[in-house]
Amino acid sequence: MNRKLILTFSCPDKKGIVAAISKILFENNANILESNQHSTKSVLNPHFYMRIVFELDRADAEKNLKNIKIEFNELINIFNIKYELNDGSIKKNAAVFVSKEDHCLYELLWQTGSGDLFLNISCIFSNHNDLSSIANFYNVPFIYIPSNFTGLNINANNLKSATFYSNSLIKNVQEQFILNEIGKYNIDFIILAKYMVILSADFINSFNKKIINIHHSFLPSFPGAKPYVQAYEKGVKIIGATAHFVNEKLDDGPIIEQDVIRINHEDDVDELKKKGKTIERTVLARAVKFFVEDRIIEYGNKTIIFM
Amino acid sequence: MNRKLILTFSCPDKKGIVAAISKILFENNANILESNQHSTKSVLNPHFYMRIVFELDRADAEKNLKNIKIEFNELINIFNIKYELNDGSIKKNAAVFVSKEDHCLYELLWQTGSGDLFLNISCIFSNHNDLSSIANFYNVPFIYIPSNFTGLNINANNLKSATFYSNSLIKNVQEQFILNEIGKYNIDFIILAKYMVILSADFINSFNKKIINIHHSFLPSFPGAKPYVQAYEKGVKIIGATAHFVNEKLDDGPIIEQDVIRINHEDDVDELKKKGKTIERTVLARAVKFFVEDRIIEYGNKTIIFM
Amino acid sequence: MNRKLILTFSCPDKKGIVAAISKILFENNANILESNQHSTKSVLNPHFYMRIVFELDRADAEKNLKNIKIEFNELINIFNIKYELNDGSIKKNAAVFVSKEDHCLYELLWQTGSGDLFLNISCIFSNHNDLSSIANFYNVPFIYIPSNFTGLNINANNLKSATFYSNSLIKNVQEQFILNEIGKYNIDFIILAKYMVILSADFINSFNKKIINIHHSFLPSFPGAKPYVQAYEKGVKIIGATAHFVNEKLDDGPIIEQDVIRINHEDDVDELKKKGKTIERTVLARAVKFFVEDRIIEYGNKTIIFM
Amino acid sequence: MNRKLILTFSCPDKKGIVAAISKILFENNANILESNQHSTKSVLNPHFYMRIVFELDRADAEKNLKNIKIEFNELINIFNIKYELNDGSIKKNAAVFVSKEDHCLYELLWQTGSGDLFLNISCIFSNHNDLSSIANFYNVPFIYIPSNFTGLNINANNLKSATFYSNSLIKNVQEQFILNEIGKYNIDFIILAKYMVILSADFINSFNKKIINIHHSFLPSFPGAKPYVQAYEKGVKIIGATAHFVNEKLDDGPIIEQDVIRINHEDDVDELKKKGKTIERTVLARAVKFFVEDRIIEYGNKTIIFM
User: Fold this and answer.
1) Based on the domain organization, do C155 and C261 belong to the same domain?
2) Does B80 share its domain with B127?
């Protein structure tokens, strides 16, 4: 059995990058398994992106990997490279945030269990208790903070009434509590699997790692609330779902994956929701798969997906 | 050989409509070939829509059809029905409006020629001369009015210079000229097959029949100009096209048909345009097919498509 | 709240059928909610198929339904009609047969739980014990009969050794046992959700109700064993799955639903299996949905699906 | 403007291939634009496939290209490489074979004209005269050899009657004539665009270049004659088309591309043919695009498509 490594990097486009990288890999006894590259054809500012999967013989993997890192670091100055080098045998840890709807969580749990997703679901957080039993069935810690949680039960001694708190303060207390709780699980990223609360910019900045959300419309159509109602009112013939990275602007982060399903005039809003669920869970699971396999590189407000 | 009729109608939903209609058809010796219905489940204002294709023996078709019409007219008062009854053996006449791009026109000409579209393309109008040769090849009259046309060549005697004309006046002169020209061909509807000029509300009202447009985005995403550039900038993973009826508000009429195609980070704007063309022509041809086969019923700003 | 009934019927095509049926429904105060029909255009032997969903006011539903049935029975002689009339508020009962793979069972359990499938999963039968815990989680009885089961544990007193039994006899004993067990649950149909044992003609005839199977290829391509290996060897660019009714001939019953997914040269057999699973569970769930909503009419070795 | 080259190669998988190739390209001042690779994970006989698009500055392109070729030839011995190096600015020449159906030919002509296909259609050959006018419209030479052609009009002096000829002899005379005629056009490959005659093994061997065929079914389902009739009889819910390289065994060459379209019980054989045409022309055009852009590598009886 060999050791599998995944290298992703980007740099200003310049001749010799591939030659330099592949020389380092060859001289350190690496075997390239997969390789994908992309260059933006921008005239002013061409940029180069690459993903390489390679393997090292177990026997001298440590020594070779150490050398590879040293030599890559030398490239940083020459080519202005940014790179990430991940061990392909280590699963990423996710916290999954849910509310009441179960379909996205089920899909993630099932695909994780079956090995289709190479992932640890380290904990599930929810503002409702509805999905605790499925979490228990899969032996995943379930963190429940109801929307009326004010932290009072923790610091009850010095407080009079929750009504003194403003909403934003309550939100702040809750988010601090969430950060604290998921902080116990060594989380690499968060998956919002139909979590119906908007995270604050503070939360996003404090967490400071990737957050993947599923939005139940074909963005940029129908952002914001009740996209299926919007789609029904508009009379579109196809609906979709969008998985994207979360940034501070609602429903506007880099799109990772989208898919669609055909509808017709017989479908009322309830039927759109039913049909949409299949798309939502498929699209979210695919986006998570891209992420845990280090297939995504962001640039600008967009993504490159190496498949 | 029998005579084929297509009946479409709508009315407030009420028990007995289907029974009444099918009784009339049966008693006048009609054989029902296809039948589709839809009821909006609105509690306050339920509405009923139906399409029936039936055939009459040639021998006594005239007499039976006359009776059917008389008896349908009696239903107007009872059920508040609006109906249309078209002869399925008579092709509709279209004027196709184009600019420089050929793919949608080619598709319509080819599908009309092969019999896939049951349609007469009576004339082609363009603000450019680029597509006249394909029109000639198919023996379809080609009307060409360049964008600098002011009508001066018609009424040259009483004019000094085109520069006196305002843009809107020129547009008005041109649109009157177009209406006049296509008026010679007994047109049932207009197909905007990548016609890159916006028709005025006056034109739309004067023409007063259906106009089908193809918009090169998956509406309501990216309305207006340069949708492929917008899609590229946004980084969507799927692009689409939308065929819709034209109303006075740009890119906002009832959607008839949509379809999509998957793209990825390798696709620049030019590649999006290429991939989009396949979707545009397919979607437009399907929408035209629905229209000429009387499969579309409008309601609100939406469409029912009976397939 | 009204009572919803689903009528499906077929008969030789003849004028007046729709009029006769809709007259009966109207005169017994039924409101038609959905209606679909199909006529085979065969010259020699035209046949007519119809599905009507109607509702009756609760108040006098019993009386009206009784009348409707009486009057329909009169049509049997006139039009040679075969019909089924089911109560739309009563769920069908299924026995789900599985082996080791969980994805189809999970999908059925999840869609049943969420209400997307209007179905009771009355019991789960398996020749392996692997999926008993998910059955328990959903509180569905799990019947486990291992492949070395000979019935000895039931009738141990008068037997020497299982080695006396021929394979076909063992199969027969096992199938009798299965029939007996699922017979306790008032089953309407069986779903083979990746059940990797071939049912005998005897079993199929004894059960004498519908059995729906999911086959993991796009039939008629790659029937029989190991379809993903066959697909890989052939180098197809798209794989699929097929849900069909089971008859005595392997993988040859009437096709209910199919769907496909694109693959490429990177996909080895394992990857085909992974990608195929998503299609398998979707296709099976759709076929079951069509069945429980009485949308399927068989004719010859084919199906009509009224959607 | 730079010169664009397309390199495709394959060899037994071994460490250092990518490093060696990219070193040669870098040292000869080439800029890699696109790069794709595939390794079969076969344990016994791992094989490596690669496609690289690179550009050379016009100024010293000749000198650098010459060096690159010399150095690549040295790799042949080291890595047992087979390679092809094509100039990305030179169009391939095709002979298109047709019978009566026009849709595939139209698609090829239209996409060639619009630049979507980087291709010269050098000549069109047919056993019918139906499509000569569209060939004329596009100014493509049209070679017509009717099925009763015996060569008598060429060698009339020494012959009595065509009835002396056996069918296979006639076929042989015709095929020799075709080879002779298309031989005048410096053809790189043949496209069978709904050519309804089976080419003999002799023809295929004599031509000795690639032949791309479109088969109107989702192979391996429904090989041979009348696939739409077969599909109708079987009651499949999805039909498809397959573009493949032609080998001596009917409908069995390596599959290049496939696509499908959903059908239902309303579709009779004629409707299947109509719906199928859209898929046939799309699939054939895509396969031709892959071929002219050097994206296809054959291995065994399968293809790798680098996209």
Assistant:
1) yes
2) no
Q: The CATH number of the domain where C178 resides is what? A: 3.40.50.170
In contact, B53 and B4? CB cutoff 8 Å: yes
Q: Tokens standing for C115?
A: 């209400």
Which of C36, C62, C87 corresponds to the end of one domain?
C87
Burial class (CB in 10 A: 0-12, 13-18, 19+), B202: middle
Instruction: Tell me which residue of C62, C66, C59 sits closest to C24, measured CA to CA.
Output: C66
> What tens digit of pLDDT does each residue of A129-139 get?
999 999 999 99
Residues B76 and B131 in one domain: no
User: Are A260 and A239 within 8 A, CB to CB?
Assistant: yes
* pTM for the structure as a whole: 0.93
Q: How far is CA A183 from CA A177, A202, B224, C212, in A?
A: 10, 16, 46, 48
* Closest alpha carbon within chain B to D101: B114
Q: What is the CATH number of the domain that holds A35?
A: 3.30.70.260
Angle between helix D103-114 and helix D269-292 axes, rounded to 10 deg: 40
Of C87, C113, C142, the last residue of a domain is C87
pLDDT tens sequence across C152-206 = 554 545 444 444 556 778 888 899 999 999 999 999 999 999 999 999 999 999 9
| Number of domains composing chain C | 2
Tell me the chain B residues in contact with residue C36 when contact means C-beta distances shorter than 8 Å: 35-36
CB-based contact C236 D219, cutoff 8 Å:
yes
Q: What is the DSSP string of A86-137?
A: EETTS-EEEEEEE-S--HHHHHHHHHHHHTSS-EEEEEEEESSSTTHHHHHH
Q: Residue B228: pLDDT above 70?
A: yes
Nearest to A116 among C134, C137, C274 (CB): C274
Beta pairing, strands D189-192 & D210-215: parallel
Pairwise CA distance, residues B211 & A153, whole Å: 65
Number of alpha helices (DSSP H) and beta strands (DSSP E) in chain A: 8, 13
Contact B292, B120 (CB under 8 A): no
Residue that the structure tokens 């601090």 belong to:
A176
**Rounded Cα gap, residues B83 and B72, in angstroms:** 9
Structural domain for D8, as ranges: 3-87
Nearest CB among A15, A27, A32 relative to D18 is that of: A32
Which residues of chain B have a CB within 8 Å of the CB of D257? Answer: none
Under a CB-based contact definition with an 8 Å cutoff, are residues D281 and D290 in contact?
no
Report which of residues D159 and D219 the model is more confident about. Answer: D219
Answer yes or no: do B110 and D106 touch at CB < 8 A: yes
Specify whether B97 is located in the same domain as B70. no
Q: Are residues C207 and C257 in the same domain?
A: yes
Measured distance CA(D291)–CA(D307) in Å, rounded? 11
Are D81 and D109 within one domain? no
Q: Is B251 a catalytic residue?
A: yes
Tokens of D38: 């595939």
Q: Are C201 and C139 contained in the same domain?
A: yes
**Are A30 and A145 members of one domain?**
no
Chain D contact probe: residue of A11, A22, A37 with most D CBs at under 10 A = A22
* DSSP track, A221-278: SS-SS-HHHHHHHHT-SEEEEEEEE--SSTT-SPEEEEEEEE--TT--HHHHHHHHHH
Radius of gyration, alpha carbons of chain A = 22
SS3 label, residue A164: helix
pLDDT digits (tens, 9 = 90+) for B106-130: 999 999 999 999 999 999 999 999 9
Residues of A within 8 A of D29 (CB-CB) are 15
pLDDT at B200 over 90: yes
Test C302 with D265 for CB contact under 8 angstroms: yes
Judged against a pLDDT cut of 90, whether residue A149 lies above it is answered with no
* Closest residue, chain D, to A27 (C-alpha): D16
- Name every chain C residue with its beta carbon within 8 A of the beta carbon of D257: 237
Terminal CA-to-CA distance of chain C, rounded, Å? Answer: 24
